[in-house]
Design brief:
The chain is mostly helical. It has helices spanning 14-28, 31-42, 44-59, 72-82, and strands at residues 89-94, 97-101.
Length: 148
């Protein structure tokens, strides 16, 4: 199967993605997750445009919003699997809630291994954790000053 990448996208192998994540976590500790999340959000507009074009070709609708909800799970799963991210399952536990599950997502740890977001001693960069184990961050998403 040949997959054409959407405009404004770059193919990145899963192994490269795992190495990038591991390198960021070694350097930045738990801050790596927010930086990777920010990069993912930055690609959202281009990926949605690609999804909308793909849905139009495959399901014959002009806009993704016009897709019958009964086909949403199938459409999302097929689209992301073709892009190399992995398949999704969609569940609707209630009328107003949608749950997407990605068991083999490209960002998942290889072979089920956990990729730690906190150093083995539990204090990334020597900073204390909050009582629930989270690292304090600013409300605007920025990093707190590093200890000296």
């Amino acid at each position: 199967m040949t997959t054409t990448l959407p405009p404004d996208t770059v193919a990145l192998g899963r192994r490269s993605l795992h190495h990038l994540r591991a390198a960021l976590e070694r350097s930045l500790g738990v801050q790596a997750a927010s930086l990777l999340q920010e990069a993912g959000f930055a690609s959202g507009e281009a990926m949605f445009a690609a999804f909308e074009a793909w849905v139009g070709e495959r399901y014959g609708v002009e806009r993704a919003e016009a897709l019958d909800g009964a086909y949403l799970g199938e459409a999302l799963s097929s689209f992301f699997a073709r892009q190399g991210w992995g398949a999704l399952t969609l569940e609707r536990p209630t009328e107003s809630v949608v749950v997407l599950e990605a068991r083999e997502w490209a960002e998942s740890a290889p072979r089920g291994r956990a990729l730690p977001l906190v150093s083995p001693v539990g204090r990334p960069h020597g900073r204390p954790l909050l009582e629930d184990g989270r690292l304090p961050v600013r409300r605007d998403g920025g990093r707190l000053p590093q200890p000296r």
